[in-house]
């Protein structure tokens, strides 16, 4: 998924929700974003600070990477994702342009608190649904991952460099 089509700057995006805790180790996706992406570990924590899940994420921190997003990726395994990093917190809109698989989109404010979770299916027609949310960060993971791990609005993330 990626920010909505270019106007001048990316608009805010939304996120998808996850549920029951899961720490499954998986293999790499068939097609991955590539070596020009930095990576980070994103730790998802409940409101009490208990670790719910960990995601190995490619970092999309430039407009070209954010626009492309995961659209060149064939699939993600549980525990894999993409972290969109913006200069500041704002209202954002994401769409499922050219996506081959569904996603959970997790919108996170500048303090690391999850503000919105969206479950985004693959678009079947030409219309692109805009998934909205307030965020400085948006984490995209396989659809259902937030439900499987128990992640919900009000939980937090911690970003660790790898």
UniProtKB/TrEMBL annotation:
Enumerate the Pfam families for this protein.
DUF192 (PF02643)
Entries under InterPro entries matching the protein:
DUF192, Saro_0823-like_sf
Name the domain of life. Answer: Archaea
PANTHER family according to UniProt = UPF0127 PROTEIN MJ1496
Q: Which organism is it from?
A: Haloplanus rubicundus
Q: Where is this region: Disordered?
A: 1-35
Name of this chain's protein = DUF192 domain-containing protein
